[in-house]
Amino acid sequence: MPRSHKTLPRLFVEAPLAPGATLEMGREHTNYLLTVLRMKKADALVVFNGSDGAWMARIADDHRKGATLEVVVQTQHQTPKSDLWFGFAPLRTGRLDYLVQKATEMGAGVIQPVITRYTQVSRLKSDKLVANVIEAAEQCEVLSVPTVADEVALSELLAHWQHEQGLRRLIFCDESAPSISPVEQMRDLDGLPVGLIVGPEGGFSDDERELLLAQPFVVPISLGPRILRADTAAVAALAVVQAIIGDWR
Ligand code: SAH
Q1: Is the pLDDT of residue 171 over 90?
Q2: Can you give the pLDDT at residue 7?
Q3: Mutate which of 173, 174, 185, 221 to test ligand 1's pocket (most atoms within 8 Å of Cβ)?
Q4: For residue 243, which phi and psi values (nearest 5 degrees)?
Q5: Whose CA is nearest to atom 3 of ligand 1?
Q6: Atom 18 (ligand 1): residue with closest C-alpha?
Q7: 12, 217, 249, 247: which is closest to 108 by C-alpha?
Q8: pLDDT for the residue numbered 2
Q9: How far apart are alpha carbons 99 and 132 in whole angstroms?
């Protein structure tokens, strides 16, 4: 019983995809396909590269030193890249991986680490963040892999926001905001490009809150009467945005 492409393993590859193209797998992918997934010659899988949609491919050569895939047929058209910008204050490693994976699953198009006063993490390993984004994209069939931007200080981000982001509004998850439902505020943003920013475990400092609230492009929202952990707040805020003005409609 041939498996439909829905249940086939999915692999992100950095190569153009077209009928008959051959893809040389590196050590890591070869090990994953042949040893972890125990795939062998002629087995099928789905490959995507973030711009050419998803394609069914087969293992043309299952050589242990380096597998070769042959691209067969496109199974999904490329979906447009998400325009949702997501900014967050990096958390400790475990939670950081979780946060970046959830932002990918929830449809962020740009994932921007923002360094704030109470951010605990000093040096970010962006290749690890990218690996988490790709893993999440493979698992939840995201076709356009979000961009992971280099870290930026909050003051820098705000100073350059209008120049770099034009009309985009920045939805500021403010744990000190009066607890009212953000639905109305979201509706006012419908049709505008938006970004979302969530603070670190220790929240935003008073100066940062003042700086954020002073920006004409910032829209402060409450995420309810309880203080959520930063990773919970990120998923909750992304869900609110996607449900009311995003791609869940
Ligand atoms: N200072 C508190 C809050 C940190 S929560 C503490 O130390 O526990 C981390 C981030 O999640 C906040 O900066 C905010 O962006 C978001 N957040 C958490 N609960 C929220 C709420 N009820 N409303 C809006 N944002 C919230």
Answers
A1: yes
A2: 83
A3: 173
A4: -70, -40
A5: 203
A6: 228
A7: 247
A8: 53
A9: 9
Q: Which atom from ligand 1 is nearest to the alpha carbon of 224?
A: 22
Residue with CA nearest ligand 1 atom 17? 175
Cα torsion at 168, 100, 155, 191 (round to 10°)?
10
Domain boundaries, the chain: 5-76, 85-244
**Centre of ligand 1 from the C-alpha of residue 202, in Å:** 8
Provide the total of helices (H) and of strands (E) in the chain, helices listed first: 7, 12
Q: Which atom of ligand 1 is nearest to the CA of 227?
A: 19
Give dist(CA 38, CA 32) in Å, integer: 8
* CA atoms of 238 and 233, how far apart (whole Å): 8
For the domain spanning 5-76, the CATH number is: 2.40.240.20
Please state, as a whole number, how many other Cβ atoms lie within 10 Å of the Cβ of residue 145.
20
**Nearest Cα to 82, choosing from 59, 101, 57, 110?**
110
Q: Crossing angle of helices 93-105/230-244, nearest 10°?
A: 10
Cα(195) to centroid(ligand 1), Å: 17
Q: Is 52 helix (H, G, I), strand (E, B) or coil?
A: coil
pTM of the model: 0.91
The CA-atom distances, in angstroms, between 246 and each of 111, 141, 243 are 16, 18, 6
Give me the CATH code for the 85-244 domain, please: 3.40.1280.10
